[in-house]
Amino acid sequence: MNRRDFVKILALSTIATQSYAMEILEKEEKKPIKSKKEVSKMKVVKLQPKDYLKPKGLVGISDEQIEVHFEGHYKGYVAKYNEIQEKLASDFADRSKANQNYSEYRALKVEESFNYMGVILHELYFENLIGGGKGEPSKELKTAIEETFGSVDNCLNEIKATGIACRGWSTLSYDVYNKMLFVNGFDAHNQYGFVGSFPLIVLDVYEHAYYVDQKNKRPPYIDAFFKNLNWDVINQRYERAIKA
Ligand SMILES: [Fe+2]
């Protein structure tokens, strides 16, 4: 092959490559991704902070600790979730550029999950706390706990161990698929939660939940948490869960 032939082949292959690239681009453009006009019709659902859930007068968890946790952290998740909803309903993130490695749309979907789960878990956490605790496990829940863990104390011990082993949350949850109780640990609001789980007891173990009172000591905070459990709320959650 002489130089003239090689250059000719190279030129042809370049044209072929360009043609192939154009074909891919045309196929990409035909993907059924919503237009900006359609996206702008999406409903924006905004959340409101539930101030009535803020507990006061807990044993071993100060009002000052609850105040920064509720006003600073919980309300921060509500605000960011709402901001993300506005962006999802606008042309901020081009759906045609959605990409799993990086894209603005992916960033919104990932952080939507983080902030929404942050809102829900915090509401469940604050709701299951009351100063000095209230009530006791219902007969039905107590039986289910004893069948699963041997005793209520063993169950609480599992929640505590999981709360020390994980970085975000420890929950006693009910699995609506296999109709059973289990303890579920999370490293973040949206990381390691089991699909189909219905949280009954929700323990926040992020440092922001105890740093005002305990600095970096988590176990005494968890012990205090157990002294403030509102079993009336937990029993109601169980009743709803077993009907799900
Ligand atoms: Fe928290």
TrEMBL record:
Matches recorded under Pfam families: Sod_Fe_C (PF02777), Sod_Fe_N (PF00081)
Annotated ranges, domain Manganese/iron superoxide dismutase C-terminal: 137-237
Gene3D superfamilies: Fe,Mn superoxide dismutase (SOD) domain (1.10.287.990), Iron/manganese superoxide dismutase, C-terminal domain (3.55.40.20)
Enzyme nomenclature, EC number: 1.15.1.1
Family annotation (InterPro entries): Fe/Mn_Superoxide_Dismutase, Mn/Fe_SOD, Mn/Fe_SOD_C, Mn/Fe_SOD_N, Mn/Fe_SOD_N_sf, SOD_C_sf
Keywords from the named record: Metal-binding, Oxidoreductase
Known catalytic reactions: 2 superoxide + 2 H(+) = H2O2 + O2
Top-rank EC class of the record's enzyme: oxidoreductase
Domain Manganese/iron superoxide dismutase N-terminal: 61-129
GO molecular function: metal ion binding; superoxide dismutase activity
Binding site for Mn(2+): 69, 122, 204, 208
Similarity comment text for this entry: Belongs to the iron/manganese superoxide dismutase family.
Job description of the protein: Destroys radicals which are normally produced within the cells and which are toxic to biological systems.
Protein name (record): Superoxide dismutase
Source organism of the structure: Venenivibrio stagnispumantis
